[in-house]
Amino acid sequence: MQKLTTPEELADMCRNWRKGGRSVALVPTMGSCHAGHEDLMRHGRALADRLVISLFVNPAQFSPAEDLQAYPRVPNQDAAVAKRCGADVLFTPDSSAMYMPDHATWVDVPEMSGLLCGMQRPTHFRGVCTVVLKLFLLTLADVAVFGEKDWQQQALLRRMARDLNVPTRIETRATVREPDGLALSSRNVYMTVDERAQAPEIYRALQYAGDMVAGGESNAATLRAAVLRRWSERLPLGRLDYLAVVNPETLLPIERLDAPARMACAVRMGMARLIDNILLRNE
């Protein structure tokens, strides 16, 4: 595994691979890797001849109210994970390499970036789309792998790729969870013992809504009310950012489940902001 730190090095490496007829898979991360990241990496390894893992805590994804410096960083541990999962290149640029001092160009999908997580983090997805497009251009990746937990991110990146004719294929892997159902996240370490004990109720309530849909319920307001009622009883330490039933592609709210939908949420458990979502299928 080679470690590269500049965009120029990465572009040269991937260009040479492509000249030699090699396919390229990309797995972008912000580090602090867990088993969910490992799943993405191993899947990427199976999809292409060469695997690029990026490890970059992207400052453009953080709002002024969020503490960029507090984000967990364990670079040596992350490098070991990438190597174990078969990475050919680990790309670890500095912020100054990815954003010039007078950087002024941003990629945004405004009709989607202000929904759901974007209501609380108005510039977050602009930062995500910009850095991911940079990585797509540098690597010329055939495929990029992301996790289902970040469903809104998936939807925006797919729309960006479609609108800008980006040939990179986006693959989604199922959310990796703890045995009690909590979605793996680098931010789980922020929780206290009591908060961690209650946190699995986030997913259990979403599953409850899924069971209601399987039983014939199709009214989004009814589903939402049932989840909120369950959380009020079993998740007293949680503070709701949002809970919505949306079209999986447009992220717009729906009233009835005439087709598969996503129930998505963000809940604050102390210092940790946890997101999750499930597919609601009435078939």
Automatic annotation (TrEMBL):
<feature type="binding site">
    <location>
        <begin position="184"/>
        <end position="187"/>
    </location>
    <ligand>
        <name>ATP</name>
    </ligand>
</feature>
<feature type="binding site">
    <location>
        <begin position="147"/>
        <end position="150"/>
    </location>
    <ligand>
        <name>ATP</name>
    </ligand>
</feature>
<dbReference type="GO" id="GO:0005524">
    <property type="term" value="F:ATP binding"/>
</dbReference>
<comment type="function">
    <text>Catalyzes the condensation of pantoate with beta-alanine in an ATP-dependent reaction via a pantoyl-adenylate intermediate.</text>
</comment>
<dbReference type="InterPro" id="IPR003721">
    <property type="entry name" value="Pantoate_ligase"/>
</dbReference>
<dbReference type="InterPro" id="IPR042176">
    <property type="entry name" value="Pantoate_ligase_C"/>
</dbReference>
<feature type="binding site">
    <location>
        <position position="176"/>
    </location>
    <ligand>
        <name>ATP</name>
    </ligand>
</feature>
<keyword id="KW-0547">Nucleotide-binding</keyword>
<dbReference type="InterPro" id="IPR014729">
    <property type="entry name" value="Rossmann-like_a/b/a_fold"/>
</dbReference>
<dbReference type="Pfam" id="PF02569">
    <property type="entry name" value="Pantoate_ligase"/>
</dbReference>
<comment type="subunit">
    <text>Homodimer.</text>
</comment>
<keyword id="KW-0963">Cytoplasm</keyword>
<keyword id="KW-0566">Pantothenate biosynthesis</keyword>
<dbReference type="GO" id="GO:0015940">
    <property type="term" value="P:pantothenate biosynthetic process"/>
</dbReference>
<feature type="binding site">
    <location>
        <position position="153"/>
    </location>
    <ligand>
        <name>(R)-pantoate</name>
    </ligand>
</feature>
<feature type="binding site">
    <location>
        <position position="61"/>
    </location>
    <ligand>
        <name>(R)-pantoate</name>
    </ligand>
</feature>
<dbReference type="GO" id="GO:0005829">
    <property type="term" value="C:cytosol"/>
</dbReference>
<comment type="similarity">
    <text>Belongs to the pantothenate synthetase family.</text>
</comment>
<protein>
    <recommendedName>
        <fullName>Pantothenate synthetase</fullName>
        <ecNumber>6.3.2.1</ecNumber>
    </recommendedName>
</protein>
<feature type="binding site">
    <location>
        <begin position="30"/>
        <end position="37"/>
    </location>
    <ligand>
        <name>ATP</name>
    </ligand>
</feature>
<feature type="active site" description="Proton donor">
    <location>
        <position position="37"/>
    </location>
</feature>
<keyword id="KW-0067">ATP-binding</keyword>
<keyword id="KW-0436">Ligase</keyword>
<dbReference type="GO" id="GO:0004592">
    <property type="term" value="F:pantoate-beta-alanine ligase activity"/>
</dbReference>
<comment type="pathway">
    <text>Cofactor biosynthesis; (R)-pantothenate biosynthesis; (R)-pantothenate from (R)-pantoate and beta-alanine: step 1/1.</text>
</comment>
<feature type="binding site">
    <location>
        <position position="61"/>
    </location>
    <ligand>
        <name>beta-alanine</name>
    </ligand>
</feature>
